[in-house]
DNA sequence: ATGCGAATGGAACATCATTCCATTTAGCTT
DNA sequence: AAGCTAAATGGAATGATGTTCCATTCGCAT
C-alpha cells in the first residue's frame, strides 16, 4: 500500500493513492467537507467504493492525506524568509490563506495534529522560534501556543464557512445575521458583545488574525527571548 | 417549543428539553462524542427518537444546548476575580478544565462559536480586556485572538482524547506513541520536532496552556494597554 | 363527558462508511 | 508463449446513523 514508486501502474489509467487524493481535494474544494463521500469519489474516479479501500485505509486516512498535500505545499512556500519573525508571519499568513481557500483543511488539521501535517507546521515554527532566541525550556510551550492559535482560527473559519454554506448564506449575510442577533442581546448581561455587534460585519478576519500574531510575537519578545 | 415555563409537564415523568439535554450530557461524558445517538438517547429516556424531535430541532441544536450548559456553569464561576488579568486567567483555566472534563465541549464550541456559548466567553473576556485598558480599536481583535487560542487548545485536546479513545489507548500511551514517531523523523528535515520528542510524554498540557495565556497577556500589555 | 391540540413513540426512509467476494488483470515463472 | 499467482477491481450487501412520518395517547379547557 505504500511503495508505488517501483513498477508502473497496472492498467492504462489505473487507480493510485495520488489520483484518489487529488480527486478528493477537488471534491472537498467544490463540495465542502460533507461533499466527500466514497460514492461521489468512486463516481468521479469511474470505479467502485471497494477499489478505493485498496489504496486508502479509511475516510480519515484520506482526509489527513489530502490535508497534508495542502499543508506541505503551503509550508514549502513560507520557509526561510528574511528574519525568523518574518518566517513566522509568513507561516501564519500562509496557513490562514490556505485554510481560507480550503475550509476543510482547518478541521482536518485539528483532527490530525500529531500527525505529519501538524508536524510540518511545528517544525517550521519551532526552527524560527529557536532562531529568535527563545530559551530551550520555553520553546515547546511557545510553539504549542502558536500552533493552537493558528489552528483555532482555522477551525473557526472553517466552521463559519460550513455553517454559512449549510444555510445557503453568503459570508456577508452570515455576519450580518450574527451582528443582528448580538445587538439584540440583553443590555445588562452582554454590554461588550452588544457594542461589538456593529463592527462585526465590516471586520477583516485576516487583519484580526495577524493582529493576534503580532500580540503573540510581542509577548514572546518581552518575556525573555534574547535577540539574535 | 420554547416556553415550557408556564404549564406543568403533562405526564408524570414526561420529556422536557432540560431532561433531554441532561441525559445528553451524561451520554457525551461517558460515551464520548460518537456515543450520542438518538437511539441511545431515546433508550436512556425510555421513549422513541421521534419524541425527542418535538423538543429539539436536530442533533446540532442538542449539542449546542448541552455545550451551553457546561459553558454557562463554567463562566459563572470565573467572573469578577481580583483583577481583570486574573479574571482572564480564571476564564481561560476554567474553560480548559471544563473542556478537559468534557472533551466534546471543545468541538461543539468550535462549531457554534457565534452562538450563545461562544458569546458568553466573548463577553467575559471582552469586559476584562476593557477593564485592562485595551484601546477600543484593539478590543475585538484581542478578544478574537484570545478566544481562538482557547478554542484551539480545547479542540486539540478533544481531538487527542477522542483519537486515544478510538484506539483504546490511555493518554500516556498515546503521548508515548507520538513521541516515538517523532523521534524517528528524518534528522535533516525535522530537527526541532525530533528534539521535542523526548519531553513530549512528560509535558503538562495545562501548564503549557497557561504559558500561552501569559505570553498573550504580556503581549497585550506591551502593545498599548494603559494600566487602570 | 368530550373535543382538541400538544405530545408521544415506533416504524419507515435515505444516506453513509465499510466489508465482502466473485471476477479481472498484470507481471513473473517455467 | 502459456499458466500461475497475487494484486487490484467494482458492485452488492451490511449495519448504523439522522431524520421524517403518522397513528395513537394524554391532559386540559369547555
Quick one: biggest sheet of chain A?
none
Average residue pLDDT of chain A: 88
How many structural domains does the protein architecture of chain A include?
2
What is the level 1 CATH name of the largest domain in chain A? Mainly Alpha
Oligomer: homodimer
The run of helices and strands of chain A is HHHHHHHHHHH
* Biggest interface pair, counts: A-B, 57 and 57 residues
Strand fraction of chain A: under 5%
- How many helices of chain A? 11
The rough form of chain A would be described as flat
Proper CATH architecture of the largest domain in chain A: Orthogonal Bundle
Fourth CATH level, the homologous superfamily of the largest domain in chain A: Tetracycline Repressor, domain 2
Count all strands of chain A and give the number: 0
- Strand-pairing-aware structural class of chain A: mainly alpha
Name the poorly predicted regions of chain A: 1-12
Using the CA coordinates, give the radius of gyration of chain A: 21 Å
Portion of residues within helices of chain A: over 70%
First-to-last CA distance of chain A: 46 Å
- CATH fold-type name of the largest domain in chain A: Tetracycline Repressor, domain 2
Amino acid at each position: 500500500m505504500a511503495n508505488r514508486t517501483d513498477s508502473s501502474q497496472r492498467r492504462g489509467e489505473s487507480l493510485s493513492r495520488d489520483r484518489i487524493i487529488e480527486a478528493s481535494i477537488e471534491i472537498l474544494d467544490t463540495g465542502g467537507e460533507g461533499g466527500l463521500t466514497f460514492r461521489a469519489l468512486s463516481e468521479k474516479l469511474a470505479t467502485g467504493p471497494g477499489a478505493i479501500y485498496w489504496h486508502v485505509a479509511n475516510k480519515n486516512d484520506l482526509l489527513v492525506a489530502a490535508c497534508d498535500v495542502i499543508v506541505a505545499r503551503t509550508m514549502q512556500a513560507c520557509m526561510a524568509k528574511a528574519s525568523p519573525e518574518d518566517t513566522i508571519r509568513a507561516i501564519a499568513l500562509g496557513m490562514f490563506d490556505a485554510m481560507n481557500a480550503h475550509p476543510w483543511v482547518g478541521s482536518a488539521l485539528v483532527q490530525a495534529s500529531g500527525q505529519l501535517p501538524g508536524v510540518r507546521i511545528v517544525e517550521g515554527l519551532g526552527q524560527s522560534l529557536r532562531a529568535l532566541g527563545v530559551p530551550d525550556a520555553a520553546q515547546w510551550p511557545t510553539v504549542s501556543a502558536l500552533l493552537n492559535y493558528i489552528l483555532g482560527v482555522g477551525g473557526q473559519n472553517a466552521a463559519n464557512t460550513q455553517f454559512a454554506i449549510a444555510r445557503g448564506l453568503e459570508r456577508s449575510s452570515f455576519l450580518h445575521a450574527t451582528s443582528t442577533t448580538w445587538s439584540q442581546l440583553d443590555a445588562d448581561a452582554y454590554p461588550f458583545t452588544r457594542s461589538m455587534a456593529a463592527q462585526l460585519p465590516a471586520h477583516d478576519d485576516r487583519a484580526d488574525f495577524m493582529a493576534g500574531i503580532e500580540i503573540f510575537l510581542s509577548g514572546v519578545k518581552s518575556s525573555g527571548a534574547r535577540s539574535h
